[in-house]
Amino acid sequence: MNNFVFHNPTKLVFGKGTVEKIGEYLKKDGIKKVLLLYGGGSIKKNGVYEKVVRSLTEHGIEKVEVSGVRPNPVLSKVHEAIEVARKEQVQAILAVGGGSVVDSAKAVAAGFYYEGDIWDAFIGKYNIKKALPLYAILTMSATGTEMNGNAVVTNEKTGEKFYFGSKYTYPVLSIVDPTTQFSLPKEQVVYGAIDAISHVMEYYFDTVGSSLIDRIDEGIIKTLIETTEIILKEPENYEARTNYCLATTLALNGLTGMGTNGGDWSSHELEHSISALKPEVAHGAGLAIIFPAWLTYVKDKISDKLISFGKHILNLKDEITPERTIKELKNWYSSIGAPISLKEVGIKKDDIDFLVEHATKHAPFGTVISLNKEDIRKIYEIAL
Ligand code: NZQ
Ligand code: ZN
C-alpha cells in the first residue's frame, strides 16, 4: 500500500425524504439566492423539481433557473449559466439532476470567478483557484460526481470531451434520495452500474493496492451486479436502490483509490473519445465496450488480478483464466442490455482515426501499460 492523503469535504445526505431538506441546509449556510441548474425535464416529471422549489420558498431562498443541460453536457450551456449567475449575483449553484448537470454546475461554479473561458481549466491552461459553493441533488447515481471534484464537459466547437479535477469544486453538500431514481429508464440503471463498476476497476487493476481495498472493491462491484439485476426487475425496490446508490458514490469518492498509484484510467480516456464522436452514446455504454478491450490488451500484466476478479466477483469456479474472466464480464454486460462492440453503437473502422486522434491528445496515459498512439489504435481495433 502506498502512502496516501484522504480528504473529502462533501457532506453526504442520504436516504428517503432528504430532497425536502435542501432549503434548510442552504439557509443554515447563509445562502439567500441560488442558480438552479437542471437538465431536460425529468425532474419536473418525477416531482423532484416541485419538492425543491417548495423547500426553497419555505426557507426564503430566491432562485434563478437555467435548464436544458443535456447528457454528455456541452460548454455553451456552461457559458450561458455563468452569464446568468453573474448577472443575478447568485451566492451558490444548486444542481439538480444526474452527472451531466452536476459536472456542468462545477464548471459554472469555477467559471463564475474566472475572467477567461472556463474551457481553459479543461485543457490545463487554468488552475482553478476559487469557485462558488455548489450544492447537488443527485437524481441519477453513476458517476460519483456528488462526492468528488471532477467535471467532464464537451466543447462542441472543437469536438473535444475533456475533464478537470479541483479541490474547489467538490460539492459542499450532496443529497442522494434513492426514491428519486425510481423513475430512471432501465438503460440508465445499466449504464450507471457499468460506469461505477469501471471506476472501481480502474483502481482494482492498478499495479499498487492493498488487500483491504481489494476486498472493498470486490464488495462494491458485487453489490452493483446484484442490485442492478434486482432493480431491472423491481425498479421500486428501495433496499436495492439504496445499496446501488451508495456503491456508486463510494466507487469514486476517494475510498477505492487509497494506497494505489491513483488508478489507471486508460479506459476512461478511451471512452471519452467515443462519446465525443457520438454524444448519443452514454458514458457507461462506451465503457462497456472499451473496458473489456483494454483488459484484453493488458491481460498478461494483470493476469493474477483478473483471476481474482473472476473468482471473488464473478463467482467463477475451476479453470479460471484471464480470458474467461473478460468473457464472463462481457457476457454479463450483454445480459443486462449493454453494447459490447463499437459496431453495436454505429462506430465503424473508418471512425477509428478520429477516436485515436482525440485520445492521443492526452497520451501517453495508463499505469498498467503506458499507452501510446499505436497501443490506443490496437485497443479500438479490439473493440470494433
Ligand atoms: O436531462 P434529464 O431530463 O434530467 O434526463 C436525464 C438524462 O437524460 C436522465 N435522468 C437523470 N435522473 C433521472 C433521469 N430520468 C428519469 N429519472 C431520473 N431520476 O438520465 C439521462 C442521463 O443523465 P446524465 O446526467 O447524462 O447521466 P450520468 O449521471 O451518467 O452522467 C454522465 C456524464 O458524467 C460524466 C460522463 O462522461 C458523462 O458526461 N462523468 C463524470 C464523472 C465525474 N464527474 O466524476 C466521472 C465519470 O467517469 C464520467 O466521465
Ligand atoms: Zn466514469
Query: What is the CATH T-level topology of the largest domain?
Result: Dehydroquinate synthase-like, alpha domain
Work out the oligomeric state of the chains in this entry.
single chain
Large-scale geometry: globular
Beta-strand share of residues: 5-15%
Spatial extent as radius of gyration: 20 Å
Uncertain regions: pLDDT < 50 for 5+ in a row?
none
Question: Count of helices?
Answer: 15
**Count of domains:** 2
Q: At the first level of CATH, what is the class of the largest domain?
A: Mainly Alpha
Bound small molecules, deduplicated? 5,6-dihydroxy-NADP, zinc ion
Architecture per CATH nomenclature, i.e. the level-2 architecture of the largest domain = Up-down Bundle
The largest β sheet comes out as: 6 strands, parallel
CATH superfamily of the largest domain: Dehydroquinate synthase-like - alpha domain
Pfam families: ADH_Fe_C, Fe-ADH
Keywords: Oxidoreductase
Protein name: Iron-containing alcohol dehydrogenase
GO molecular function, one term: methylglyoxal reductase (NADPH) (acetol producing) activity
Give an overview in words.
By secondary structure, the chain is an alpha/beta fold. It folds into 2 domains: 11-180, Rossmann fold; 186-383, Dehydroquinate synthase-like - alpha domain (Dehydroquinate synthase-like, alpha domain). It has 15 helices and 8 strands. The chain has helices at residues 22-28, 42-45, 48-58, 75-87, 99-111, 119-122, 186-204, 211-233, 238-251, 266-277, 283-298, 303-313, 322-335, 352-360, 373-383; strands at residues 11-14, 33-38, 62-66, 92-97, 134-138, 150-155, 160-165, 173-176. A 6-stranded parallel beta sheet has the order 1-8-5-4-2-3, with helices on both faces. A two-stranded antiparallel ribbon has the order 6-7. The longest helix is centred in the middle third of the chain and has 23 residues, at 211-233. It is globular and about 65 Å long. Residues 143, 195, 198-199, 268, 283 line the site of zinc ion. Zinc ion is lined by residues 143, 195, 198-199, 268, 283.
